[in-house]
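Give me the 3D structure for TonB-dependent receptor.
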Amino acid sequence: MKKKLQFIFVLLFSFATQVGFSQAREITGTVNDTDGLPLPGVNVIIQNTNRGTQTDFDGNYSIDVSEGEVLLFSYVGYTTETVPVGTQNTINITLQEDAAQLDEVVVVGYGTQSKRNLTDNVAKLTAEDIEEVPVPSIQSTIAGKAAGVQISATNGKVEGGVNIRIRGIASIGAGSEPLYVLDGVPLINNNESNNGSPTNPLLTLSANEIQSIDILKDASAAAVYGSRGANGVVIITTKKGANKPASFSMNYSYGISEPTNTREWLNADEYIELFTEAAINGLGEDEGIPYIEGIFDYISDGTDWRNREVDTDWQDLALQDGHVQDASLSMSGGNEKTTYFFSGAYNDTEGIVRGNELERINGRVNVTHNFNEKFRAGMNMSFSRTEIDRIANDNAFVTPLQAIAQPAISPAYLEDGDPNPNTLYPNFLLQDKHAFYNTVIRRLTGRGFGEYQFFDFLRFNSDFGYDLYYQTEDNYVGRLAPFQSTNGEAYASSVGTESYVSSNYFTFSKVFNDIHDVEVVAGMEYNQSNRRFQDVTGIQFPTDDFQTINSAAEITGGSGEESANSFLSYFGRLQYSLFDKYLFKASVRRDGSSRFGEDVRYGTFPAVSAGWIISEEDFLSSSNAISFLKLRASYGETGNANIGDYAALGLFSGISYNQRPGIAPVQAANPLLTWESVKQTDIGLEYGFLNNRISGEIDYYIKESDGLIFDQPLPGTSGQSSITRNIGLLENEGFEFVLNTTNIETNNLSWKTNFNISKNNNEVKELPDGADVIIGETILREGEPLSAFYLIEYAGVDPDNGDALYYVDGVGSETTTDPNEANRVIAGKPYADWIAGLTNTVNYSGIDLSFTFIGEWGASIYNGGGIYQSANADYFDNQSRDQLDRWQEPGDITDVPQARLFGGNGTATSTRYLQESDFIRLRNLTLGYTIPKDFTDQMGLEKFRVYFTGINLLTITDYDGYDPESTSDAGQGVGVSFYSAPAVKTMSLGVNINF
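Predicted structure for TonB-dependent receptor (995 residues):
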């Protein structure tokens, strides 16, 4: 009996244990899309219960279930999947896209959100949009892909700055660049160049490591970043691993580059003809001929110019064919506990301007580990080293492009092969041979993060990010280089900027009664940046073989400085959805910055938005034509603190007076200096027709920048030249239109099109005392566009005598030959009214083709070098060939005045050198072929694809300068070109291999 009782007890215990286990068994897994990428925020619900959870940022989930229950996986834009639990402990799911829904998930500040329920204006680009574009800059890969986002490189130099404008320019004196956030870390984006031309700090990033780029355009989206969101926010998310076996991806491409355009300059025959005529017209035949022949003797440097012994193409020497080499290798994978992504990349770019090269290496490690069902942590870490061989800025005589000013009869080289030192202007070939300017940028960016899930509906995130930007510059000018009067000169500098950010926030997310979907995010953030700069200059070197500072016999200069700034922020965001069709969002951020006056350091930046998914209403839910229709509106305020670290303070500097130390004031104090604020209203309509084969959005916005920060001039008696103040009001108003179409969708053929176009009107509303601010060729004036061109109006040529004419008061008024009698008028603007992009993607039986056209209309470029290079032989600079069409006899109708040496005939700064820069450009084209899977399986590969990529293959424009997108990098002013290198045309062949 006792044994029977023991048996029954054991049997009951085993049964109870099994029942207990069945009631409390944990299921884990990962939810991916069809490309193997993790899906965050997927709802994992036990069918017919209110128990459930969501996948984390890496697509992982865990949930307690009982045997026999059914898991339901649902996600906006994807089909719903149901899976019986059975006896398995791991359930990995791949969700299929649902063509009947909008399927994008966008990254917003401190979280993600489905595009369907978004009440903000956010443009999303994926890895497919930016990969395989052979340019060093990631910003350039975005061009034409997002409405209202204008992207252009300053010029064709490999390190050149990139201008990105989101819905126009929002500031005058403070920075106009957007905030870049890499995996939650705000990136350092300061230009640290010391040779007069800017570098692009984001050159350090590689496109191969990027999963997506989300551009927050309106204030409702950007307001959660508060103080740094005035110019928009660009959120860059890097690739991550997934719960799958390890896989490798390799990409290699090699391409050749050339200038998009070259100009025609006078050859030897034409130069002698034009300048002989100009000397006769300017000095008279008796004096002019011997004078100009003496000049020809000088600049030909002993060669026989009469028999045209030399006919140098200086442009051909300055510009060259370059190359671009890209290689990357990545590995990703993981299991239910740990996922990983490792990558490395290499870029080698030889520029189209002689002496300009770039070499970069990148490495990245992203790891996430789930310690248990409650806690996960991870790390994102990247390192890059970028080395750049640089050339002088556009305003330096020794920059290669200024060689076009050299006469064609001047030899470039001596008989022994050395560069000719006896040229009209310094020969850049001497600089190329006897000098160098080398910049090395080392960057370390990292983020450690932890997430604790208190309940299914409440989690806490703690992130710590770090960005180290360390740059060194070394410049040596040898004794044989131009302008060198000592035995060599060396310059060395180093600058280190580190930024660390600590973010801590709670996220509450819950659905009540199946109709109320609520998410609340609340937290705080602290950001500290420190910068240290030092440089030294030395001269008198033993020989040019010694090129570092320690070999200098005399130290002639040196400086050092340290600065720091900090931000303390508190933020909150509420998102609410009723019946999954009535949407509401509100956010607020309270920011404090050390850059402003002590009593006005804090600013509050609120935003509110709402949306109505009309297509979910009964009167449209059964429509066969309308698949999706959403109306949304938003209002918000953001701030701009992109100014100097101590702009509000009165500063003093140490000086030497009669070799005794002292201090002197260098900056006037303004304790009332505070945030520049941007108030923006956006109204948008998102649409989808015919099962979303036609979709897109339409937006109208108005953006006002108030309390503009810029330097106001002070009277000389104050002892200071200017003071930084909040003065002025600027407005941008515009609309955006996006159209996506699926033109063909069959088993073998797919053709999709994206078209976007936007218009932006920019206007200065208020200035201090309503007074104009004239800066070079531009003006700030109330009621006019920002930095409008302010020039006298060129009226052409008097057909009777060849004199240049100018309108006294603009077009239609009387004319004068004296430019001093003509009044300046507003004649154009440097910013485009319209920008557009058109992308087509075609796939057919393993062949893929995609291409993007971009266009800009309404802007102008002023050719600052025109008074030298297109001046009808006013001085000895070689001339553009159109100057041959000069006035020569009474009755000639032309816009080129009579050639007169030293006559100043038509060379005044005027609209003669201002031209519209409208263009349409084939920005990129990719044609690829993927080998059929039957063959790749035999080779043990997942994928083998070969492709051709072209950048800037075609440009349609009436602009006759080098390039409608190239402007000066030497601070000549907005929209001014000055011996600026054209954009680069690149053609590459590449291969993708996955295994």
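The domain at 139-261+318-326+334-606+634-787+829-871+906-994 is CATH 2.40.170.20 (Maltoporin; Chain A). Let me know if you want a second pass.
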